[in-house]
Amino acid sequence: MAPEPTKTEEKAKAPQVAAAPKAAKVPRAKVQVSSTQDEGTADARKGAKFLGLVVVAYIVYLVLSGQMGTFIEALSNVDRAWIIGAAICYVFYFIFGVGAYAVAVWLDHDSPVGFRDLMSVEASGVFFGNLTPMMAGAVPAQIVRLTRTGLDAGEAMATQFTRFIVFQFAVVLFAAIMLLAKFQFFLETYGDIVFLNLVVFAVHFVELVVLFVVCLMPGFVKRI
C-alpha cells in the first residue's frame, strides 16, 4: 500500500486560488475632508437657490403691489456716486468682519475653521442681518454657520463673542472720533437730538467695558 500523503503534500497538490485584490485604504482624514467639501458645495448651492428665491419673491411682490414702476423711477433718480460709495463701504465691512473672525480663529490654534468658512460666516451675517430688523438675524445665522464648520455650539458662540468684541470696539472708537471732531456740526445740524446720541454712545461704551471685564477677569465675574 502506498503511504498516505502528508498535509504538506496535500497543500501542494491543492489548486491555487488567486487572492482577491485588497481594497486600497483611504486615509480617514482624506475621507473627512472630501465629505466636508461635498457638504460645503451642497450648502453653497442651497444658499444660491435661497438667494434666487428671495430675489424672485421680492420682484413678484413689487409687481403685485403696483410698486415696480415707482421702484424703477426711484432707481433712475439715485445718485450713482452714493451707490458706489455704499458698495465700497460694504466691501470694507465684509473684509473687516472676516478679519475679526480671523482673530478669533487665530487665538484658537486647534480650530477647524478655514478662511473660506470665515468668508461664508460673515456673508451669512450680512445677508440675514439685512433681512431682519436691527440686524437681529445676523448673529444667530453666523453661529449656525460656524457649527457647520465643525465647531460645537459653545465654541461657535465663543468665536462669535470675540468677533462681537472687535465689532463693538470699532463702533465705540468710530463714534468717539466723530463726536470729538464734529460735535459742533452735529449740534448745529440736528439740534438737541445729538444729546440722545450721547446717551446711546455711553451705553455702547459701558457695554464694551463689561465685555472686556468678562473676558479679562473671569474670576471676578464668577464671584459676582
Whole-number mean pLDDT:
81
Helix content: over 70%
Amino-to-carboxy terminus distance:
100 Å
Estimate the strand proportion: under 5%
Total helical elements: 9
Radius of gyration: 30 Å
Secondary structural class: mainly alpha
Main sheet? none
Sequence stretches where pLDDT stays below 50 over 5 or more residues: none
- Extended strand count: 0
> Which of globular, elongated, flat, extended, rod-shaped describes the shape?
flat
Query: What are the secondary-structure elements, in order, as H or E?
Result: HHHHHHHHH
Short account of what is shown:
The chain is mainly α. 79% of the residues lie in helices and 0% in strands.
Task: Considering the chains and any ligands shown, give keywords for the structure.
224 residues, mainly alpha, 9 helices, flat
What does it look like?
With 224 residues, the protein is mostly helical. Among the domains are: 62-162; 170-224, no CATH class. Helix content is 79%, strand content 0%. The protein has 9 helices and no strands. The chain has helices spanning 7-13, 28-64, 68-76, 80-107, 115-131, 138-147, 153-190, 193-216, 218-223. Helix 4 (80-107) crosses helix 5 and helix 6 packs antiparallel against helix 7 (153-190). The longest helix is centred in the C-terminal third of the chain and has 38 residues, at 153-190. The protein is flat, with a radius of gyration of 30 Å. The N and C termini lie far apart (100 Å). The model has no long low-confidence stretch (mean pLDDT 81).
